[in-house]
């Protein structure tokens, strides 16, 4: 598949967050051209939503850099095991944990299991999210609003709070925001608002933790070909997905992985409270 001409064909899935195994074509996540150089040797990372899409690509890139990876996902067991297999074939170590990140008790259990398995924690990637398009504000129910923020925002507070006692000087926290936090989206009001909250959370947490030598940054993707897309939009909308970007196509998950590696390793030692925009050419002043 040539990235410069990629246009996903019409397709849908009937549940979120969606299954990568059911997508045609499958997203590019393996990063075959990406060569690790030991930038994360002997580090341990928790990556939420690491079973597929951006999280999968990041997990694989981290493993190539020598990192032990804990993938946290909801219930997409086929995708998670496929990602684990790729990492293990690379010679890496990958531990899978599934459950609802909107539950604070589960987030605490994720960190406890990570420490029990790998005995340390250096990197936290808060990446899991959900979205539910609605035509008007009136169409967004209280339960949808609560669920969106529970998954997209509260989970970051819960998991980061549980992880902080184990993060030391030199550790990194990376949050996945979105271009919608900066440009807005008329049909993704609650999702865009949650992503805006993540930007503010990133900046504020960076200021809070800078004295401890812990860096906090975010990556703001544009339209990326992940399972969330066919499980969110109609077939006709999927057919047009990402074509309105300056590059005229959606991005692939492996086009973001290097940004996460950069923010996780010492190459970004003088970077905190910032956002890297990977969006196909949109100029974002923020």
UniProtKB/TrEMBL annotation:
One of its GO terms (biological process) is bile acid metabolic process. InterPro entries: NAD(P)-bd_dom_sf, Sc_DH/Rdtase_CS, SDR_fam. One of its GO terms (molecular function) is oxidoreductase activity, acting on CH-OH group of donors. The keyword Oxidoreductase applies. Transmembrane segments: none annotated. Residues 1-36 are annotated as: Disordered. Keywords: Oxidoreductase. Belongs to the short-chain dehydrogenases/reductases (SDR) family. This is Short-chain dehydrogenase/reductase SDR. The lineage of its organism: Bacteria, Bacillati, Bacillota, Bacilli, Bacillales.
């Amino acid at each position: 598949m040539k990235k410069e001409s990629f246009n996903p064909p019409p397709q849908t899935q009937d549940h979120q967050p969606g299954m990568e195994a059911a997508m045609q074509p499958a997203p590019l996540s393996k990063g075959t051209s990406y060569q690790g150089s030991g930038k994360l040797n002997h580090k341990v990372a928790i990556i939420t939503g690491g079973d597929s899409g951006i999280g999968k690509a990041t997990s694989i890139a981290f493993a190539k850099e020598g990192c032990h990876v804990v993938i946290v996902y909801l219930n997409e067991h086929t995708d998670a095991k496929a990602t684990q297999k790729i990492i293990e074939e690379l010679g890496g170590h990958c531990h899978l944990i599934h459950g609802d990140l909107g539950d604070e008790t589960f987030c605490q259990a994720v960190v406890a299991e990570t420490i029990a398995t790998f005995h340390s924690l250096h990197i936290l990637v808060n990446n899991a999210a959900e979205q539910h398009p609605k035509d008007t504000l009136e169409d967004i129910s209280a339960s949808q609003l609560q669920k969106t923020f529970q998954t997209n925002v509260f989970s970051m507070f819960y998991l980061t709070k549980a992880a902080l006692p184990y993060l030391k000087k030199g550790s990194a926290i990376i949050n996945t925001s979105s271009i919608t936090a900066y440009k807005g989206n008329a049909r993704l009001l609650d999702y865009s608002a949650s992503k805006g909250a993540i930007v503010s959370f990133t900046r504020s947490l960076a200021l809070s933790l800078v004295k401890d030598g812990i860096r906090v940054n975010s990556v703001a993707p544009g339209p990326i070909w992940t399972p969330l897309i066919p499980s969110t939009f109609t077939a006709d909308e999927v057919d047009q997905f990402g074509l309105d970007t300056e590059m005229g196509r959606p991005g692939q998950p492996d086009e973001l992985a290097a940004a996460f590696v950069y923010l996780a390793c010492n190459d970004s030692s003088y970077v905190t409270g910032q956002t890297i925009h990977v969006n196909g050419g949109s100029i974002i002043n923020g």
